[in-house]
Amino acid sequence: MLYSLKLHSIAYFVIASLCTHFLLNLFVDNRVKNEYPVLVWKSSIVPDRDRLIICYDKKYECLITRNETKNNVSVFMFYGSHLDNNDFPLPRNGEIWALFHEESPRNYAPILFREMQGLFNITATFSTNSDFPLTLQYLPNINSIIDKTYFKSTKEKNNFIKTKNIASVLFIQSDCDTPIERDNFISKLMEYIKIDSYGACLHNQDFSKEISTIYPLDLYNPVFLEFISQYKFIIAFENSICEDYITEKLWRPLMVGSVPIYLGSPSVKAWLPNKKSAILVDDFDSAKSLADFIKVVNSNDTLYDLFLEHKLNGIIENDDLIDKFGFGLNNEHENAITAFECFVCKKIHHGRYKVKEGSVFDCPYPKNSSWNGFWDAGRYQARALKILMEKNVKFSNATYEKLWKKLFYKEN
């Protein structure tokens, strides 16, 4: 009897739950149909569940989902690193396409070119040419630049060099094949100055057991930051040279009070806290001349301290860095993705989503010739995508591959 009652209770609960779920979905769908624009993510970067977002002091509301069968779809949201030809919702019936791509374009070559970029009405990338720039996405907060949590005085660092037998320069990297030819330059630099190199690239030092469990999973871990703060200089080479592409490779040394030796974005000077916050590789004509300068700075404490105004005196002279921090991100958002969702939601409510003129990305051909083919292929892949998209019908990967290769061989 008790068993029968239990079964009856369970059955009742299941039926009631299903009815409630059905009625709730019906209610939500009806409300969405009547009230909220729907933003559909074509990527697993967000959870597969519906979310109602309320943005900018409750002025704008939109439904976020990965279910493209919803009513009232206004926007399809794409994540650059997950772009797939099969994901493009064709035929396109007036929906807005929004692109979120915080990485360098080296993992998806077509996005380098205007033909591909022009498919999107709204963009969020590291470039300040984007509708929603993410240039400072890797800087946790402005205060971290002047904060002294991990800071070591010049005297302490000099002592570490003697007592711990460490180099004055640190290099940590495990991504060894890059368009920027990072390892080739650093290998030359090593001929003139001692560099402690952890990670897989140019490896000559081993992490402690504790740090081995952290690297490369959590590069803002306090133990890791404490470790790198011992070094006077940290090599900060991006994996690609693109305008405005600035990552944690620059910000992490500045946060802990080391001097970055930087190669990457040509516009980096516009983002430094002070004029002398980093040593810029582009200011030198060779690895030897750079090494000679590092040696001079390393041997002169007064000169070295000039690079640490942000730590020693809590000074950030660059007002633009302070004013532009966040580019619309604010404390109501957990991260750049949720901030972009609200940005798009607001755009849809206002009906402002004209495609920007000019290229979003400015990434010159790589110094590493082995990557030139990647850039070349991307150019023709972008052209092929534009041609196929203009037909506004679904296409196969085989059709796409055949077309871009045809375009390539026609001109090469």
TrEMBL record:
Top-level taxon:
Eukaryota
Q: Which residues form the Fucosyltransferase N-terminal domain?
A: 37-134
Keyword Membrane applies? yes
The UniProt keywords, alphabetically, are:
Glycoprotein, Glycosyltransferase, Golgi apparatus, Membrane, Signal-anchor, Transferase, Transmembrane, Transmembrane helix
The EC number(s) given in the record are: 2.4.1.-
Residue ranges of the Fucosyltransferase C-terminal domain? 168-353
Question: Could you tell me what this protein is called?
Answer: Fucosyltransferase
A GO molecular function held by the record: alpha-(1->3)-fucosyltransferase activity
Q: Where in the cell is it found?
A: Golgi apparatus, Golgi stack membrane
**GO cellular component terms?**
Golgi cisterna membrane
Please classify the protein's predominant subcellular localization into one broad category.
Answer: Golgi
Q: One Pfam family name from the record?
A: Glyco_transf_10
Entry membrane topology: Single-pass type II membrane protein
Q: In which pathway does it act?
A: Protein modification; protein glycosylation
Q: Which family does it belong to?
A: Belongs to the glycosyltransferase 10 family.
EC top class, as a word: transferase
Transmembrane helix in keyword set = yes
